[in-house]
Amino acid sequence: MLRPASSEFIELCRSQISLLTQSLGASLSAVYLTEHHLDRSFTQLIPIAAYPDRATPWTELEEIAFLPYEGQFQGLTPSLPNSVDPKLESTDSEVLPQSHQLILPLVKQQMLMGFLVTQRQDRQWDELEREQIQQITNTLAIACLLDQRGQWSEHRYQQQTELQTKRHELLHNFLHQFRNPLTALGTFGKLLLKRLAPADPNRAIAENMLRESRRLQDLLQHFNQSMDALEQSDRTLESDGSEASEQRLLRATPSLLPQLPPSLGQISLTLKSCTIEEIVASLLPSIEAIAEEKGLSLNCQIPPHLPLIEVDPTALTEVLNNLLENGIKYTPAPGHIYLQVTAHNAQNQLLIAISDTGPGIPPEDLPEVFKRHYRGVQAEGEIPGTGLGLAIAKDLTEQMQGTIKVFSPAAYPPKATQGTTFVVSLPIP
């Protein structure tokens, strides 16, 4: 639950009502804030500042019950007060039978937040003095609104921090539980390879199982490193929460503020010379199995003697695997998936085209397909997805100094009226 007021706001109230005594000769002044009861049965007034200071700043609280906006106390929330009549914001809002005593509501943006109560014994308030008191009331109303909003934002920030901590704990628990069966799968793959003869047709399946388990191990290690870097950044930001640090940050330029690691969320690539044939050969067995299970045919057209390319083999495998699996996912049986590779020596580019005979991508979705979590019209269908595969493929391709484009209808087969083609262009060194 939020506090009625911060210490800063209370100090402001004290300074403002002390002016009433020093400048206008008030004998007693107090500031009350509205506080809503938990069972919503009533709203009470909480005294937060008085001048001169007393244990009970105002003893005649029953007089406030005669205010015409008494009914507005119903339905107020602990965080921000509810709306009230806009007429309460007028300078004529002071009301009480006694002429030496003024009670003015703290109202801003049609919200009643409390009251300023002041009196003096020796004389009545003239019009100029009433205007000055109204200005003080308006200042307190603005400050109260900002204070309540600041407390609400701080409360929400604390809730989000707690939620983020719980999420981190859940992820760490999941990763710990995920690591053991993953290690076991890798061990089973090694044992299976030892039991299969080199000519056994099942050996390729076992090799793919072992390769995929290693790939998952690498991704798991990268994820752990990213989580550690993110938590370290959180601790750095939290350590700057002191008052001295806040002042230093306010004076600092944006370039001096705490920054997240630039590599956070990115896979560190190691480029080396390799052939496209060996990349495709490493992923074809699993892709062929997935396509066959769905009733699709996979057609590869890779001419011999293609030039070497400078890429990260793991990253390029991930790119092609995402594009091929994406085509398989959205192509109904019986359909076809095409993988074609050509070299444009004049432009020093190796082109890898992946086409399908699926329904294609609507024109309005084409400019957005590489955005993270964007699924477009597919989000309305029954095929599950996260909208991350194409975004990851684009990011990895660009890290290898390449480009990726999409065409729909597909560029292959010729004169296709549906389907999709993704073209990955990589530089030839």
Automatic annotation (TrEMBL):
Molecular function GO labels: kinase activity
EC number(s) stated in the UniProt entry for this protein: 2.7.13.3
This protein's record includes keyword Kinase: yes
Enzyme class: transferase
Catalytic activity: ATP + protein L-histidine = ADP + protein N-phospho-L-histidine
UniProtKB keywords: Kinase, Phosphoprotein, Transferase, Two-component regulatory system
PANTHER family recorded: HYBRID SIGNAL TRANSDUCTION HISTIDINE KINASE C, TWO-COMPONENT HISTIDINE KINASE
Protein name from the UniProt record: histidine kinase
